Description:
By secondary structure, this protein is an alpha+beta fold. It folds into five domains: 40-80, no CATH class; 104-231, PH-domain like (Roll); 247-374, PH-domain like (Roll); 415-555, Roll (PH-domain like); 563-655, Recoverin, domain 1, CATH 1.10.238. The protein is built from 17 helices and 25 strands. The strands form six sheets. Strands 6-5-4-3-8-7 form a six-stranded antiparallel β-sheet, covered by helices on one side. A six-stranded antiparallel β-sheet has the order 12-11-10-9-16-15, covered by helices on one side. A hairpin with an 8-residue loop joins β9 and β10 (275-283). α10 runs antiparallel to α11, α13 packs antiparallel against α16 (631-640) and α14 packs antiparallel against α15 (614-623). 12% of the residues are buried.
Amino acid sequence: MSSEPRPGLPFLPGCSFRDPMVSAAPGHPSSREPSASKTSFHRSQTLGYKNGFAFSRLPTVGIGGERLYVNQPSQAELDELSNTGPTLTYGQAKKAPPSGFIPAHVAFDKKVLKFDAYFQEDVPLSTEEHYRIRQVGIYYYLEDDTISVTEPVVKNSGIRQGKLIRRHRVPKNDHGDHYHWKDLNRGINITMYGRTYRIVDCDPFTQVFLESRGIELNPPEKMVFDPYIELRQMPMRMYITPSDFDQLKQFLTYDKQVLRFYAMWDDTNSMFGENRPYIIHYYLADDTVEVREVHKPNDGRDPFPVFIKRQRLPKTFVDKKKTFPSCVLEISDQEVLEWYTAKDFAVGKPTTLLGRTFFIYDCDEFTRNFYRDKFGITDFQPVEIKKKPPEEIPQVIPPYNGYGFLEDSLQNCYSLFPKRPRKDVIKMLENDHKVLRYQVALESPNPVDTKRRFILSYFLSNDMISIYEPPVRNSGIIGGKYLGKTRVAKPGSTTENAEYYGPSDLTIGSTIEVFGHRFIITDADEYVLNYMESNAESFPATTLQSMRDHFHPRQVVEETAKSDVPAPGTSKQELDELIARVQEELKLHNYLNYSNIREALLRSDKDESGFLNRAKFLSVCDSLNVPTSAVLVNKLIDLCSCGDDKINYRDFLRAFPS
């Protein structure tokens, strides 16, 4: 608002007019020019950016740059801003988090104050002691202010010791207060449940803890011991034993001292008798004898170690009457003149014990030392016991009964728990899925059997043979498996020297005998010739030459099959037209994968002859969902087929372009 009059307007007291043409507020440099007028009428910007973020703000100037006083900070706000320190660009500075609160059960976990104390207990019903001192340990647990009192176990004290007061907060008085660690100190008495304990000392941790808390500890005191326990620890009175011999002196002198002799009982004169080893123990403490039997693994005897139990054995009897019941009554000193003593046993001499004669051939080192010190005997040369060599029984392998394989049956003869015979794993891995197939005819006087044809398969991985008869319609014979996988032995082979048929025995025209049936080999797969030529060093020259002579007339046919010339009897134009029609029909079967079909057929042709067996070809097509039942596809298969029930799959693959 301008205070200067404009030309043409009356300037009266109390009347002033705002010039809308003034472009600046009072105080602006342009306001001092009377002729100035507004030239810009846009509104002030209320949108701003700070640190890349948009925010709204109140306008500070009006239209045309006129200053507004409405949105200006007040004097109080300015004072507050002047007294407030600067802040960071992104707001107030973050304060450091307060230190975490640590509860008492964490701060004082496994921290225990230990005090040594004792209490006095009266003994009213004893003439040897009037009171006893019992030492205890007082444990104060800082984590929960609990106390437990434990008395260490003293050997042969006759008092049930251990935990006297279980761990809990012990009441201090009748007002509900409990004992605190501030109440404990050395050289004081503390009463818990009517029993007064005298605290004499504490451990170093307890001393450091209490002194760190400002508690002044009393000097330690000496622990008081029980007078009766100290009296019992005094040396016992020594008595002089009379020099006369008595059994108590013998027992105390030779207790746990035993003489050991190694003996043999020869019982070969009786039926099924043998030399049996025994150990004779002579106990010096009471002149008793014990005989123990030595058992060996698989000796066939019951595991009773004691042959004669520990007892005094009589050596010489009194002339007894025939009516003395010795089988019922025990033998006493009245029936025996002399008992066995240590001087009756010697190495290299026989000894009769209860009617059995034992020959002592050796003893242990303690026995040698005893006889050397007691009787002056120094000859303890052990006697060598010669055992009769057992009669060797020849092991005769029983004849083969025809069940299972020969190697499996032999394991039953070698061990009670037969083990599986070892297999040539390397041979199995190298010849896995390698099979030699032959066509054989049955040699039989029956004219019907002579027309039957079989397929003999020889598995190179395990040298097994299987025979299969293809079913023939209206033949009256059910085909199928004729012989399962097994190894076929040659005629005349024995159990000791078993010989089995191998690939070198299977030649064209040869006869093999399979469990009483004779077969003549009439044909073979080309894979047989290829395998023999690749492993010529493993086959006789006659076997390899017979295969070459047999397959020589087929070489012309093989060369023709490997070329693109169609099968005989089919023109190339007719085959091309049929392939084009099949390709149009296969467009409807969009799920077929042509590359998989081509790869599967090529993989099936292991000898790369270009031909596949019809049954094998159809099985591969069925596994890949090829529509062989369609009319055009079936016709193409017929055109690609040739003699010997084989199919030229190379012409068939022309319908499946890559």
